[in-house]
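Table S2 (continued). Query chain:
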Amino acid sequence: MKRINSLEGLRGIASLLVLFNHLGVMFYPAYYWGGGQNSTVKL
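Corresponding output:
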């Protein structure tokens, strides 16, 4: 199957957005869910 480079780049950008979203939810759940929940990750 022929790959289209511009779509492959778009897929890479989308995967980075998902990664940053998951990291944000993990470290700052109140930012995502609202309210005053504490982070489950202890630094």
